[in-house]
Amino acid sequence: MGLSINGNMHNHIGTNLHDQLHARALAIDDGTNRIAIVVADSCMIYREIFDNAKRIVHEKTGLPENHILMSATHTHSAPAAVSIFQTDADKEYQLFLTRRLADAAIQAINNLQPAKIGWSVERDPRHVSNRRWYTKPGVINRDMFGGTNDRVRMNPRPGSPEILSPAGPTDPGVSVLAVKSLDDRPIALLANYSMHYCGDVGGDGIYSADYFGAFCARVQHKLDPEGTNGFVAILSNGTSGDCNSTDFLHAPSNDPPYTKINSVANDIADDAMKCFNRAEYHDSIPLKILQKEITLGVRHGTPAEVEAAKAKLAKAPRHNGYLSPWSPDVYARETVLLDAFPKTMPIILQAIRIGDLGIVAIPCEVFAETGLEIKSKSPFKPTFTIELANGCHGYIPTPAQHKLGGYETWRARSSYLEVDAAPKIVSAVMDLLQQLNN
């Protein structure tokens, strides 16, 4: 209790817990190669935290650090592990999180047992919408730097007469990797869905795993209702940087808190069960993982822009020490803080082959069109992407989306990689996938 919550422009302090937050893990070994996948209920997690957790796992188990994939779900109602906008992370919590990430992987490795594995995909477009919308001619969209050239608006008011059409696609795929014992006892289910988060937690100070945690509870109830088999359900976030579950064409309803969380969780859990039941299971499959570090440019303000931001901050009004949320003052602060970043940023990319299934890990908030491109080009069918994996380096709009403007493109610690970051990441990922296929 009392820690800041990530995911907002202003600082919310946690005062209550609705549901427990977890780090959930799956370890897989084909007799030659071993990997571990850990998914944590957090908005985003620094690479340094993941690296430290992987180091602990390696020291305790011998598993190479580059054989471990760790990611955050992107719930917007978890304690801050990252300092962004006006929310600062607590160092003691970061250390606690590091140890829990490591513990999850170590427990999964300690619980390895003979098993069979399968995978399948279901489509469910009911709960995913693109949140970037073109606005009608004549509508002015102001950015946080004084500009009026944005052609799209992020999260427009539902039912607004000013919106025209979505600025990008969605990925409705529910991808599932399922593991059973040799006598068909459920061991684990790892799912992937490209939807940002729900957020209807009923208050600014409530900790919750959002629909990710509710999904795991539903699947757990279906496959291990007594909780006696050690079954683990996991839901990872796909490529949802520009997607959420809002119906932007109609005015919102006044549903009670957790209505959307439970609705999404129930439906995606039903989809996952279809995949679990129809998957073809194998007791022997090739297992490989490759990791690559690439370096991308950082978008800084010009010296003049930084100086102007400093001057603006010096005069900015504050309430209880905080700037007005969603104001140019917040972005002036981001400009100053981003100025301390290096000129380039190294990021980790991973690709995993599990039989004919491909998994890609990217440390950013990835747009749906990028995820769909990876799926279509991958030599493995199916393939899915886990975002915010092994680090967090902000949104990566495509170059075309950068030209459209909107929140996800505004320069800040939430979006700072070079304009060509997305195609460079796709190119590097495809190289890894092709290597796995050789």
Your description of this structure?
The chain has 438 residues and is α/β, with parallel strands linked by helices. The protein has two domains: 4-129 and 171-288 and 348-393 and 421-430, no CATH class; 303-338. 29% of the residues lie in helices and 25% in strands. It is built from nine helices and 22 strands. It has helices at residues 47-61, 91-110, 210-223, 259-278, 303-315, 328-338, 368-377, 399-404, 421-437, and strands at 4-5, 12-13, 16-17, 23-29, 34-40, 68-72, 115-123, 129-130, 132-135, 152-154, 163-166, 173-181, 186-193, 206-207, 232-237, 243-244, 287-297, 344-354, 357-362, 365-366, 383-387, 395-396. Strands 7-12-13-15 form a four-stranded mixed β-sheet. β1 (4-5) and β2 (12-13) form a beta hairpin. α5 packs across α6 (328-338). The chain is globular. The termini are far apart.
Summary of the model, kept short:
This protein is α/β, with parallel strands linked by helices.
Features:
438 residues; alpha/beta; 2 domains; 4-stranded mixed β-sheet; 9 helices; 29% helix
Backbone structural class: alpha/beta
Mean pLDDT: 97
Residue runs with pLDDT of under 50 for 5 or more positions: none
Percent strand? 25-35%
Radius of gyration: 21 Å
**Helix content range:** 25-40%
Question: How many structurally independent domains?
Answer: 2
- What is the number of beta strands? 22
Shape: globular
Number of helices: 9
Layout: helices, strands, pairs:
Elements: E1 4-5, E2 12-13, E3 16-17, E4 23-29, E5 34-40, H1 47-61, E6 68-72, H2 91-110, E7 115-123, E8 129-130, E9 132-135, E10 152-154, E11 163-166, E12 173-181, E13 186-193, E14 206-207, H3 210-223, E15 232-237, E16 243-244, H4 259-278, E17 287-297, H5 303-315, H6 328-338, E18 344-354, E19 357-362, E20 365-366, H7 368-377, E21 383-387, E22 395-396, H8 399-404, H9 421-437
Parallel strand pairs: 3-14, 5-6, 13-15, 19-21, 20-22
Antiparallel strand pairs: 1-2, 4-5, 7-12, 8-16, 9-10, 9-11, 12-13, 17-18, 18-19
Helix pairs in contact: 1-2, 3-4, 5-6, 7-9
